[in-house]
Amino acid sequence: MKIYTKTGDAGETGLFGGGRVAKDSPRVQAYGEVDELNAALGVARAAGVGALDGLCQSLQEQLFTVGAVLATPRGTKADAHLPQLQPAWIAEMEAAVDRLDGELPKMSHFILPGGTPGSAALHLARTVCRRAERRVVPLVREGTVDAQVLVFLNRLSDLLFMMARAVNHRAGVEDVKWIPER
User: Fold this and answer.
1) How far apart are CA 135 and CA 29, in angstroms?
2) 7 pLDDT higher than 70
3) d(CA 62, CA 38)
4) Could you tell me if residue 156 is left (phi over 0), alpha (psi between -120 and 50 degrees) or otherwise beta?
5) Which sign does the torsion angle of CA 50, 55, 59, 61 carry?
6) Cα-flanking dihedrals φ and ψ of residue 72, to 5°?
7) CATH of 23-71+110-175 among 3.90.1150.10, 1.20.1200.10, 2.40.10.220, 2.30.30.60
8) 3, 79, 157, 171 - which has most CB atoms within 10 Å?
């Protein structure tokens, strides 16, 4: 099988379950953002996240499911055969946020993204996650995507923030406080 099909040369792409849409359609933009988020997590892992690497890999696997859900219109035959988001994933993210919060110093200021390469990459992944979340909002609002996708992305952005802080903390690197000029 060749990697190029030429079927997208006119600016359209196929959805799981059939049908073609413009490559700039809201659905394609949403799953494109999730794909970018997955790649950003891969960059974070390559930059070094220490003991959080396994969690990052699990999140990447979950993001593949999120992308598949976004790429598949509800009610299609493919929809019935797709893996689905698991409520346990959200509970696991919340538990991880709570664990990390327990080990980190309390925040007294906003912080600037940065520190170690792994932390900086996780902060970047967090911003990509927020962008993906913004792309999913209209799809949830119109009823074409389940609201659990939005909950997943919202919780994930919180987790990525805490992971970025934890990577710095575990490396002995303080978060850079934002102290606005007056």
Assistant:
1) 7
2) no
3) 9
4) alpha
5) positive
6) -120, 115
7) 1.20.1200.10
8) 157
